[in-house]
Amino acid sequence: MAEMWRHYGNKEAVMRNSLKLLAPISLIVALAACSGENAEAPGEEFATAEGDYAPSPEAAGSAADTAEDAVAEIGSPPTQANRYASRGGDVALPVPSSDIAVSLPKMAYVMNYGFRLAGDKIATVQQQHADMCEAQGPYSCRIIAMTRTGDDEDEIAGELQLAVASDKARGFGALLSAAAAQADAEEFRADIQGEDVSKSIVDTEARVRSRIALRDRLMEVLRTRRGKVEELVEAERQVAAVNEEIDQAQSWLREQQGRVAFSRMTLTYESATPGGSFLRPVEGALGSLGSIFGMLLAFLIVVGAVLGPVVLAALGIRHFGRRAEARASRAEA
To answer: CA gyration radius for the chain?
Structure first.
């Protein structure tokens, strides 16, 4: 009797484990049957013993096949087509891996802007541009040089040199042009020039690494004191020479990296004649006439200084020659 109960208990445990394993598959079957486009009519369902409705045997078989296909697809490894297939069924292009390093060129930019405005406004606009640069902060804009020459309002000229962060240079240049336009300034120049310094920087970095490796080997020789005295002295000289090369290369490298990080911007200011473009050529012509007359007078002075003594000497010789001839004719008479 005990043997029979034990056998019955083992059989019941096996059935419980089988039901646990079949529970996920039954859930998938039920979901597939509910979400099918061609669902069966309510009349084809049949009632269970508990009073619930279950799908018909044909629908259950179809749903079971769908569930088995889904399980097989989940368990199968992804193929090349599955990787590139989109949700709509179209084949999409493969996305490049983010591990591929993309080296962008290192550009050093030089920007030049020129403004022509009334002479009495040049100082104000130049100071306004300098204040705008300082307001950006030293990490975005720096003033390199600022000059202004001329006393007459029609001859005033100025220049402002800035170092602007490369990622903000073009936007800041537009702000400077807008500020100058508010002072009725005419922008007669705006150009941007770029230089690719990628190769120079990469070559210099490689040279620095090779020089550092050489210095380390020489320092190892000096540290271990292996070799003759002459070899150790020569190693010390080579270490000093290599250190000098490394310092020079690193200094040049920092300069080039600074050119890439900060763009050089030059602003020039010229005075404009109030009368417009008609009077400016006339005043230029009058000024050129004064220069021409001055150059002509200077030329005459130089010629007189050089040829004057020669002419006087020739006239003196001729005068004394005539007097000698006159004395000779009187003596013959």
So the answer is: 48
- Residues 8-25: what's their mean pLDDT? 53
Q: Under a CB-based contact definition with an 8 Å cutoff, are residues 215 and 243 in contact?
A: yes
- Cα–Cα distance list, 45 to 41, 81, 83 (Å): 7, 39, 40
Q: Tell me which H or E stretch contains 241.
A: helix 229-261
The reply to whether 279 falls in a domain is no
> Does residue 223 lie within any of the structural domains?
yes
Least confident of 180-184, 245-249, 308-312: 308-312
Contact 102, 190 (CB under 8 A): no
Model pLDDT for residues 93-144, shown as the tens digit of each residue: 455 455 555 567 888 999 999 999 988 889 999 999 999 999 999 999 999 9
- The CA-CA-CA angle for residues 137, 141, 145, to 5°, reads 120
From the number of C-beta atoms within 10 Å of its C-beta (0-12, 13-18, 19+), residue 125 rates as: buried
Question: Among residues 129, 166, 152, which one has the least CA distance to residue 271?
Answer: 152
What pLDDT, in 10s, does the model give residues 214-239? 888 888 878 887 767 787 788 888 88
Total domains present in the chain: 2
How many Cβ atoms from other residues are within 10 Å of residue 16's Cβ? 10
* Residue with the larger pLDDT of the pair 109 and 91: 109
256 forms bridges with which residues in the sheet? none
The answer to whether residue 100 sits within a structural domain is no
C-alpha 74, offset from chain centre: 48
Which residues constitute the domain of residue 63? 2-84
Domain stops at, among 18, 49, 84: 84
The mean pLDDT value for 22-51 works out to 48
* 231 is a domain residue: yes
Contacts of 277 (CB under 8 A, 6+ apart): none
Instruction: Give the residue from 206, 163, 171, 186 showing the smallest Cα distance to 268.
Output: 186
> What band does 10 get if pLDDT is binned at 50, 70 and 90?
low
